[in-house]
Amino acid sequence: MLTRLQRRGLTGFGLAALAAILTPGAMGRAQTAKSPDEPTRIDGTIVSIRGDILVVRPSLRHKMTRLSFGANTTIMGFAQATPAILKPGARIMAVGPYSEQGGFHPRWIEAAEKPIGYLAAKSDGLKMDENGRARCIGTLKSVSPFVVVADNGKEMPGKLDRMRGVWRVYSEDRNALLIGVRIEAEGKVAPDGVIQAATISPDRNFAKAGAMFGKILAVQGGTVILQPRYTDDKLTVKMAEGCILQRQVTLDPDSVKTGDAITFWAQQRPDDPTHAGDLKAIALLVGKERYPAADSANTVFATGKLLALEPDVKLQRTDGKIFKIIIPAQMPVVNLQTIPLAALKPGTEAMFVLSRNPNGGFKTSAIVLDASPWVGYGG
Amino acid sequence: MPMRTRPALKWRRFAGACLLTMAGGLTAALPASAQGVDVLTFHYDNARLGWNAQETRLTPETVRAGGFGQRWHTDLDGKVTGSPLLVTGLEMAGGKADVVFAGTESDSVYALDAGTGKILWSRRRIAPPLTETQFSGNWFDGPTHGILSTPVIDRAANTLYACGVRARGLRQVFEVFALDIRTGEARPGFPVALKGTYKSGAFEGGQVMQRGALILVNGWVYIPFGGRGDTPPWRGWVMGVDTQHPSAPQRAFCSSPITDGAGIWSGGGLAGGANGDLFAITGNGDYDLDTHGDNAAQSVLRLTTEGDALTFSRQPKDFYTPANHKFLDEQDEDLGGATALLLPDMPDTTTPHLLFTGGKDGLAYLLDRDNLGGLGGETQKFRLFSDPKAVYHEGIRSTSAYFDAGDKGRFIFVAGDQPGPDNALGIAALQLITEAGKPAQLKRVWTLKKAIDGPSSPVVSSNGKAQGVIWVVETANGDDSALRAYDALTGAELYGSDKSPADHLQDGRRFTSPVVANGCVFIGASGVYCYGLKDAAPKAANSGLRPIPASNANLNRKGK
Fold first, then answer.
1. Contact yes or no for A329 and B137 at CB 8 A
2. What's the helix, strand, coil split of chain B in %, to 5?
């Protein structure tokens, strides 16, 4: 099933009033900032949160992008819903095919109780693209017949006979932005490439959990009180059943020799077909333990023998297959060790793999002491 | 002031060091041969003043008259992200030449004839540059990441030092290269891979980026480092290599040894005082200097280079931190976007030794070098650029320039990205107000009427204390780059290269600075550009000069 991000990419419609920037090349251009007034969007995974600055690893390229978070930034949450949430008065965006003869057939609808984020953008009617698809933003006048009213009063009728999905849109708080969470964001680009985010949308279909780095303040039974990194906050999280407890021991890269048995936690390179067989390392692991891997994170654990360090780093997997490994900046060389609960001492820095409880609060499925910030869960 | 020639030994010791000897506001004396002014380091001198007071040909009148434009452009194998450097009267095979030097993002170094742009020698890919995937940070859009900073030249030793990066096994390694400026040949003992520790933390090349200009102080070359766009983990570092004994232990200082941050990333790098002190300015990160800690984000730091170490005392007289540093950190409003200007002595005031800088928050900061002031101890600070209500600031991210106009006053020219109070745009001219027995103060006297999109670090040329011209590159993210010149006393625009297609400047680089000397303006961009008075005959190299063979295939040169 398509996620919201994938759907939005396939539809060819970016956020309201944005130029379509859906190809890898176009994404690259957008992120290198052609003009401070030109809005752009990005989708990717949060790898760092410091103050009001988020560092995001884009989905379609490897160069990090920074987002600044301001008082006017809206965090838009999305939840898959049914057409039953479509009520007159809702603020909606509908996307689908259009023709003069057949009219407008929305396939995807995002609906909010009140205008937020890009749903608050002023609308004046259907917007077309060159592929015969249309988008409308406005206030839902009626569901049957389906009629949306633009802000200039223009009515935009449609037929809900080809519907594929409805999404409820709502305001989120900043706790929705965790390291490892995949997001989509849009905003204006500052001259140094920082996107001044107008909206940020976490996509939980990609990463249901994220990572938070912080200091352990106390451990009380199955509960950990932590201070998130770069803040003075206190956060209480419950340890999930079977919670993984590990300590990262960082090793000198020069201690790894050709012939050693190692594991690379790595990304495949869909961005570059000519190097599709290569892996871009996230971390090099010595030993049997692994980082808690994210689902749908497009990462692999490649275990085998280190064949060469120069001129290229090469790994021969146990099945004989040989991979060229790209070693990026910040790649840690580590050994992960299983630790007892008693090792979670106050004052210890750790990475917490978190997910939100349906009724609020967080639970953690893994705690890694002294983890490198680079390996933030989510891949 | 007449040009001076220093004895070779003295040159050897002080090459590239504080070459401005100021006494009561005398004009700047740049290193010069009989053939003209040399530019051996970023912004002309270790004080980073950006002022050449020996420019007799490029005056407001001649630049405005219409005969000024592009002379030549030479494409290289990568963009030139640092400033070019210039040596005049260099003895090379076959004769003497005025030579422009440039390092590229492809880890190459070039020597070009200053008169024609012809490549005299090149050393291509002295190390394999990093690919975008290997680099991984969020700065720069080029396909390769090699030399990103301004090299430095030891004229007495005829040696250029540059810093490049390469992948080596599981590491990324920064190396300092030393090349004979006459031939491009590597000096014995080089390249030197940078390594060192500070407070038990090891320098890790894979965590940092090297954009700041190199600086030579007392025979040591110092190299500053910042992060790769806040991608964790990152640290601010200064590494030092003994040029006479390259295999000797290196000097190392980390501005945030315990946690992330405090990158030293300004394109101008470090400023150097006459006594060998280094001044570094850091960016966002953790801070605990006020509680005797070691994490020095958002601060101006004085490092001493005496003895065998690179030392930071952590005493308030040796650092300055804005009182709102936490806010600045959270907003990513780095103090360290600009390099410090070590202003000439002002003996008639209670603050004879001043330091000026600007922050991404858009504020101008005037500090007392004799006592930097610790937390909140500035001599003066005030807003020049940016709206304090903005979501994200890009107020000042370039190194300012100084100009002593004699009885018309002493000025600092500050380039800013975003409009400031009272519609301040582009460049603001600040006048130093001095009064006996009182601290010096700055007063804004004019700004441009039009914004500059992504200004480089400006420089000033003048004929002594008169005929001052401000030069700056409007980078505009590449395609719309332009060289601009302004009257230093009024801000009136004298020249814009975007007014003539023949003068087009492609891919101006943000962290570079124009080099103005001997009637020419040299700019690092997509290769090297030279502008000058078109009716003035280019100063041709000796006809017997011959290029030194190198792998220079596919390099294009556009003569004007």
1. yes
2. 10, 35, 55
A41-72: per-residue pLDDT in tens?
888 878 778 778 888 877 766 667 888 887 78
Sequence-distant (≥ 6) Cβ neighbours of residue B476 within 8 angstroms: B453, B454, B482, B508
pLDDT in tens, A123-177: 888 888 877 889 999 999 999 999 999 999 999 999 998 888 898 998 888 777 8
pLDDT over threshold 80, residue B145 = yes
Of A100, A112, A98, the closest CA to residue A159 belongs to A98
Residues B108, B114, B118, B120: is their CA dihedral positive or negative? negative
Q: How far apart are CA A362 and CA B436, in angstroms?
A: 64
Alpha-carbon distance of B115 to B96, in angstroms, equals 12
Distance of alpha carbon A223 from the chain centroid: 27
Contacts of residue A52 in chain B, CB cutoff 8 Å? 330-332
ipTM: 0.80
Write the residue in A66, A190, A333 that is nearest to B229 by C-beta.
A66
Q: What's the longest Cα–Cα distance across chain A?
A: 71
- State the Cα–Cα distance between residues B150 and B59, nearest whole angstrom: 26
Q: Among B305, B286, B184, B304, which Cα is nearest to B235's?
A: B286
Give the integer Cα–Cα distance in Å for B4 and A331. 51
Tell me the Ramachandran region of residue A10: left when phi exceeds 0, alpha when psi lies from -120 to 50, beta otherwise: alpha
B49, two tokens = 């003043």
Query: Tokens 């917490």 sit at which residue?
Result: A352
Peptide bond into A311 cis (omega under 30): yes
Residue of A nearest to B171 (CA): A253
Per-residue H/E/C for B213-246:
CCEEECCEEEEEEECCCCCCCCECEEEEEECCCC
Q: Are A85 and A110 in contact (CB under 8 A)?
A: no
What pLDDT does A13 receive?
34
Which two structure tokens, joined as six digits, stand for B448? 């441009």
Q: What is the pLDDT of residues B168-207, one digit of tens each?
A: 999 999 999 999 999 999 999 999 999 999 998 999 999 9
Q: How many helices (H) and strands (E) does chain B have?
A: 4, 41
A95-99, B134-138, B182-186, B348-352 — which is least confidently predicted? B134-138
pLDDT band at A234 (very low <50, low <70, confident <90, very high): confident
Residue B264 Cα to chain centre, angstroms:
13
pTM, rounded to two decimals: 0.82
Say what the pLDDT of residue B31 is. Answer: 66
pLDDT of residue A6: 42
DSSP string, B451-505: --SSB---EEEEETTEEEEEEEEE-TTTTT-EEEEEETTT--EEEEGGG-GGG--
Q: B144: distance to nearest CA of chain A, Å? A: 12
List chain B residues with CB under 8 Å of A215: none
Nearest to B332 among A68, A72, A331 (CB): A68
For the segment A6-34, the average pLDDT, to the nearest whole number, is 31
The position carrying tokens 């650092």 is B319
Q: Which 3 state secondary structure label does DSSP give B63?
A: helix
Type and span of the H or E element at A146? strand A146-149
